[in-house]
Design brief:
single chain, mainly beta, OB fold (Dihydrolipoamide Acetyltransferase, E2P), seven-stranded mixed beta sheet, two-stranded antiparallel ribbon, globular
Length: about 140
Amino acid sequence: MELFVNSIPVDLSRLSGLLCVAAPEPKTDLDGEQRKDRDGNHLWVTGIAVRRAGTRKASVIDVQTSAQPEGVTEGSPVGVTELDVSPWEIEGRHGLSYKAASIYPKRPGNAAGGASSPGVVPGPPQRERGAKGTA
């Protein structure tokens, strides 16, 4: 039995520390052929470490896109647009499937929010070199 539930949008403002931990690669079927979406676009999968803002624990999720993420490499900070999650169940197995409109490299110094870096949550403010902190 196969059960797919409608996708649920993920609130990206509640996530921080998005980091590529497995470079984009073609999503393949059991025969090794690259899968395609309903529109005929090739599918790609990228491993991303995510952390709920304000917490220490991180999780790794495989995020599927219908276009190859350009400039995304293992170990690089990334941004994600329109992340959705879908629960699935097939023959007694179950899990979550993540899909995004795009995954892009997040360059140091990018402004958070807005059109230039959608869905990216800034990290904690950085102290200037040589500044003395009270934390």
